[in-house]
Design brief:
The structure holds 3 protein chains of 3 kinds. Chain B has 23 helices and 2 strands. By secondary structure, chain B is mainly alpha-helical. Among the domains of chain C are: about 90 residues, NADH-ubiquinone/plastoquinone oxidoreductase chain 6, subunit NuoJ (Four Helix Bundle (Hemerythrin (Met), subunit A), Up-down Bundle); about 55 residues, no CATH class. In chain C, helix 2 packs antiparallel against helix 3 and helix 3 packs antiparallel against helix 4. Classes of the chains: A mainly alpha, B mainly alpha, C mainly alpha.
């Protein structure tokens, strides 16, 4: 069997091309290009993650008027390396009541989706080497953006299973929160992506970027009217359980949340995944709403068409990494009921309304604005129904309400009261 | 911003949306739309909606659907039967009649449920929403011309019914019944989908007309795939119509569900599922009828025999009616088995008669169930005629109609399916059916006699059956728990003569109030049953015409 | 028809296709067996995810990228996560004791039925003529090369077109199914009414307020 594959590789004519993957058949050139792309992307992502950890600690320190890491390397740049080395050599603890297999599996389930998402992000333009023209992107599958959604959806498995397999209460609470949170925000996330897909008319990330070329006013951020971007940012932050949606690890309530029982390199992997996610999601936001590697290219400089897009992409991504860090420094963590309220009662109706507006304007041009009164009326009705519903549930206790307000008392209720009892 | 959005090129030219003739899908649209409106209303008024509002809303909605289906009838009469909306639905006499039947069933159920919901103090709006959407699912099954629509209808119907079964939180039995129904129903739906997939693999289409075309034009050398698909579809249908190898859920669910829901479920689920079964088998797989007729034959025999025999042993009226509904399913399968137009019209007529008989019966059971809806022991019916003569008479009429007594629709229904079976060449089936009709007649009559046998005060007047009661049985009745534990040991005669377990305690009123709307519903059901039983020709003609207009 | 049959006879799937199919089929089967045999619900759910991933790979192998992605997003990303949520939330994640059989003889009967069904399915698959699903023609992929141009990618566009033409009514009827599912879930999630005494208290509270 392998021999046959070998023969295919040997005999396939070099038809040139490189992307899309393997379309022109297998040959050594293509295999090499793909392998190099994968390795480079993986290596760069790892280094970037190490830098991201440093960056986050430095920026937060700055915002909190501290110095932050400053011992290892210039400006503490090598701090992450030192931490990583230390983590590897620490004792690997396995809790007594842990489900060993799942406990060991969970960290990998956390890291792998984080790495994979980056595969569909277009980093730059195209490069031609000999007969091969390939894209600066590991892969450009036709359902590219859905791949991002899929991976961000299953990234939660790591968190969930880590908490459950630890065989301990606090991590379990973290897991329960994680699963509920991810499901709650998935719909809003999907619908805000759909608006992008509607205007780009493709699911491929490269096509989405191409649709935003020719000036920043073509960026989806502006074409779609800012809101889908905001919705997407909120939803993806919640999906990745980054602050202020990091209820899964809420250290004040849950000790360390899902990773309480983890130590050594297994903990390191969770740590790695979290920061890698920050980078990949910044990259995805840039791709979807900020034109990815698009930007003005000075043709006078030789080779600018190759590296300027990469520079633009990196600049934009770093800007978003900074915004994520800023979120973490500035925003207090949400309470659980606020999280659910935001997801179900606000974000989903809002994204749905905006999606309807975008779709109707795209289809009916100016007549699409007819949808505006429809949306407004539905919003008013929904608001009234919500209002009445919460009032009724308070007086009739028909629906068990999470963190329900006690009449007359201030709005400070135990956050996880309904879970503490059950789980 | 809008300007840049407007500048985006959009390609809308290529998609040609199929022409939609709204008349063909108006009844289910009205049911679903009405349900959504009711739901919106319930969530937008500051107080919980009163039950009466929901009742009248539902009556209005289903009445409108009924009116629209009459309009459809004249349209089909004028223009003939056609498929609409990209051949996904069909509007022919058959589908219109099913739609009418379901609208009528919904209307009557709403009237029955009003009294029940008020009595039990349960919130009503969601009940009606669920029932309306459920009915629309049954309508979809009746008009479906695509296996996918059949499946969607089946699911819409079923999911609402699962929830309706558990609607009354105060009844523990309801929750259990709903869980059983849900698990088994979900499993049968999965089998049904698998059947659709295999049929698609064998014929290349899910559209019933195209399947029929394919089978007419191609001879399958190896038809294992097709047969497997059809038999899996039959499993799914068999579950929904409660035919015997797939009937296990029926007694528990009928007993556990709130009584109005049981009536609704018995009528609407059966109507929808039989409609789809008839259409799928006759219009798509008519060519291979020699393959599926033996299966239907077997299902019919088992349903007829087991339904009637097991009903004999039941002490709980709802369980008894559940088994009797299995028996009825067997009768309707007679019409399916004949695989001819006369069979279709006979099955339709039977469904029509059955719907009113069963909803009426369960309406009376609802009333007699007292508050809590738990009082369904047969002994409670003793002497009902003394206390509430009108109610007893109505129940007796409905039971006799189910037994197939003359001057009721039940007789004509049974006669027609039997004649259809004979004309289809299945004489043994017809004979078995008639024998089980006699057995079934016995347990229907038993309840009727029990009601007229007199209460405590008039036990002497009770007609003594042959053979006097044995003393040890009297003892077993003295403790109700023991009696329940030994259901299988109970002797039928004892129910008429044995000591009732403290039938009328001090706290229970001996005369139960019949809510006005429930009374109207019972009156309607009895009226239809008797009027069309005495004067059968219009309804028989109607069903006959519907089967003539059957597109298949 | 004739055309397809000829292709069936003349083209054999390429080696990479066979390798991918074998690998994902193995994953699917192992996962499926794991779902049934796992004593622990969480392990069963994980095996289910494995099966779903295998199916997604098969979809990709069939060039149904969209279906593959949706399979992962909907099933692995939402439904199984919901399963796990319920399992963890209710604390039913202890291994079931399946040694006690409430009805004797079920297990051997199940094995016998399983054997018969399996044999039936295999026989059916081997002998039957499938109208759909003719093997793919070997050659460069059509349509995907232009994926990065502004035209919508072929598969999604086709699916959308089918949904809004042939299956328009089914698509719309699904709305009713979703509505009923939501209403049903809310109705079932309602707490059973509180006992009588506190209910009368509430009634008084309502009157006074």
């Amino acid at each position: 069997m392998i021999g046959a594959l070998w023969n295919t590789l040997q005999t396939a004519p070099d038809q040139g091309g490189g992307d899309p993957l393997f379309v022109f058949g297998l040959n050594w050139g293509v295999v090499l290009i793909v392998a190099v792309k994968v390795l480079v992307a993986f290596g760069v992502l790892l280094v970037a993650t190490a830098l991201m950890i440093w960056f986050e600690r430095k920026v937060i320190s700055d915002m909190q008027s501290r110095v932050g890491p400053n011992r290892a390397g210039p400006w503490g740049l090598l701090q992450t390396l030192a931490d990583g080395t230390k983590l590897i050599f620490k004792e690997d603890l396995l809790p007594d009541r842990a489900d060993i297999f799942v406990f060991k599996l969970a960290p990998y389930l956390s890291v792998i989706p984080a790495v994979l998402i980056f595969a569909v992000v277009p980093v730059g333009g195209t490069i031609t080497l000999g007969t091969h023209t390939f894209e600066l992107q590991v892969s450009d599958p036709p359902m590219g953006i859905l791949f991002v959604l899929a991976m961000s959806g299953i990234a939660v498995y790591g968190v969930m299973l880590a908490g459950w397999s630890s065989g301990s209460k606090y991590p379990l609470l973290g897991s329960v929160r994680a699963s509920a949170q991810v499901i709650s925000y998935e719909a809003a996330l999907g619908m805000s992506v759909v608006t992008v897909v509607l205007v780009s008319r493709s699911l491929s990330t490269r096509a989405i970027v191409a649709a935003q070329s020719n000036g920043f006013w073509h960026w989806n951020l502006i074409r779609l009217g800012f809101f889908p971007f905001i919705f997407f940012m909120i939803a993806i932050t919640a999906e990745l359980t980054r602050p202020p949606f990091d209820l899964t690890e809420a250290e004040q309530e849950l000790v360390g949340g899902f990773h309480t029982e983890y130590s050594s390199i297994r903990f390191g992997l969770f740590f790695l995944a979290e920061f890698m996610n920050t980078i990949t999601m910044s990259a995805v936001v840039v791709t979807l709403f900020f034109g990815g590697p698009n930007g003005p290219i000075p043709h006078a400089i030789p080779g600018a068409t190759i590296y300027m897009p990469i520079v633009y992409f990196i600049l934009k991504t770093v800007a978003f990494c900074f915004i994520y860090v800023w979120f973490r420094a500035a925003l207090p963590r949400l309470r659980y009921d606020q999280l659910m309220d935001l997801g179900w009662k606000r974000l989903i109706p809002l994204t749905l309304a905006w999606l309807l507006m975008v779709a109707s304007v795209l289809t009916w041009r100016w007549w699409g604005l007819v949808m505006l009164p429809v949306v407004v009326v539905s919003a008013v009705l929904l608001f009234r129904a919500n209002h009445l519903g919460s009032g009724r549930s308070e007086e009739d206790a028909i629906i068990p309400v999470v963190g329900r307000r006690v009449t007359g008392a201030p709005r400070l209720t135990p956050v996880d009261a309904p879970h503490g009892g059950d789980a | 911003m809008i300007a840049s959005l407007l500048a985006t090129p959009v390609n809308t030219g290529k998609l040609v949306v199929p022409h939609i003739r709204y008349l063909s899908i108006l009844p289910p649209m009205i049911m679903i739309g009405g349900a959504v409106l009711l739901l919106a209303l319930a969530s937008l008024v500051s107080r919980p909606l009163r039950v009466r509002v929901g009742t009248w809303g539902t009556v209005l909605i289903s009445g409108t659907a009924l009116g629209i289906s009459l309009w459809q009838w004249t349209d089909v009469g004028d223009h003939g039967a056609h498929t609409y909306v990209a051949h996904a639905v069909v509007m022919d006499g058959f589908s219109v009649l099913i739609t009418m039947l379901i609208s009528a069933a919904m209307l009557v159920t709403a009237l029955v449920a009003d009294g029940y919901l008020n009595r039990e103090g349960v919130e009503g709006s969601e009940f009606y929403v669920l029932a309306l959407v459920s009915a629309s699912g049954a309508m979809l099954m009746g008009m479906a011309n695509d296996l996918i629509i059949v499946f969607l209808g089946l699911e819409i119907l079923s999911i609402a019914l699962y929830v309706l079964t558990a609607y009354n939180h105060r009844r523990g039995a309801s929750g259990e019944a709903a869980l059983k129904y849900f698990l088994l129903g979900g499993f049968s739906s999965a089998i049904f989908v698998y059947g659709i997939a295999l049929t698609y693999g064998a014929t290349g289409s899910t559209n019933l007309t195209q399947i029929a075309d394919f089978l007419a034009k191609n001879v399958l050398l190896t038809d294992g795939l097709l047969l497997a698909g059809v038999s899996l579809l039959l499993v799914g249908f068999g579950f929904k119509v409660a035919a015997v190898p797939f009937h296990m859920w029926t007694p528990d669910v009928y007993q556990g569900a709130p009584s109005p829901v049981t009536g609704f479920m018995a009528a609407v689920a059966k109507a929808g599922a039989f409609a789809a079964l008839l259409r799928v088998l006759l219009s798509s797989f008519g060519v291979i009828s020699s393959d599926w007729r033996p299966i239907i034959f077997g299902m019919a025999v088992l349903s007829l025999v087991l339904g009637s025999v097991l009903a004999l042993r039941q002490r709980d009226v709802k369980r008894m009616l559940a088994y009797s509904s299995i028996n009825h399913a067997g009768f309707i399968l007679l019409g399916v088995e004949s695989a001819r137009a006369s069979g279709v019209s006979a099955s339709l007529y039977y469904l029509f008669a059955y719907t009113f008989m069963t909803i009426g019966s369960f309406a009376i059971v609802t009333v007699l169930g007292r508050e809590g809806d738990g009082d369904h022991d047969l002994t409670r019916y003793r002497g009902l005629a003394r206390r509430q003569p009108v109610l007893a008479l109505a129940f007796a009429v409905l039971l006799l109609a189910q037994a197939g007594a003359p001057f009721t629709t039940g007789l004509w229904a049974k006669l027609q399916v039997v004649f259809a079976a004979i004309s289809g060449g299945s004489v043994p089936l017809a004979v078995i059916a008639m024998v089980t009709a006699v057995i079934a007649g016995y347990f229907y009559l038993r309840v009727a006699v029990l009601m007229y046998a007199g209460g405590d005060d008039a036990r002497a007047d009770a007609p003594q059956p042959a053979g006097s009661p044995e003393p040890h049985a009297m003892i077993s009745f003295a403790s109700p728990e023991g009696a329940h534990a030994n259901v299988t040991t109970i002797n039928d005669e004892l129910l008429m003569t044995g000591e009732a377990p403290a039938p009328f305690g001090e706290d229970l009123p001996s005369v139960l109030p019949v809510p006005a709307l429930t009374g109207v519903a019972i009156g309607l059901c009895v009226g239809v049953t008797v009027v069309f039983g005495v004067w059968p020709s219009p309804l028989v003609d109607f069903a006959h015409q519907a089967s003539l207009l059957f597109l298949g | 028809m004739l055309h397809t049959t000829l292709l069936l006879a003349s083209t054999r799937p390429a080696l990479p296709d066979i390798l991918v199919f074998a690998a994902s089929a193995a994953v699917i089967l192992v996962g499926a067996v794991g779902v049934v045999t796992s004593r622990n619900p969480v392990h069963a759910a994980l095996s289910l995810v494995m099966t779903l991933f295998g199916v997604a790979v098969l979809f990709i192998e069939q060039e149904a990228d969209f279906l593959a992605a949706v399979q992962i997003i909907v099933y692995a990303g939402a439904i199984v996560v919901l399963f796990l949520f319920v399992i963890m939330f209710l604390g039913v994640d202890r291994s079931e004791d399946v040694e006690v059989e409430p009805l004797g003889g079920q297990r051997p009967l199940a094995y016998i039925l399983l054997g018969i069904t399996l044999a039936g399915i295999l026989a059916m698959a081997a002998t039957s003529h499938w109208v759909t699903g003719a093997h793919q023609v070997v050659g460069p992929i059509q349509g995907h090369i232009t994926a990065s141009s502004s035209s919508p990618s072929g598969e999604v566009a086709q699916l959308g077109k089918q949904l809004f033409t042939t299956y328009l009514f089914a698509f719309e009827a699904t709305a009713a199914l979703l509505v009923i599912a939501v209403v049903g879930a809310v109705v079932l999630a309602r707490r059973p009414p509180v006992p009588q005494d506190s209910e009368s208290e509430r009634a008084e509270g309502k009157l006074s307020s």
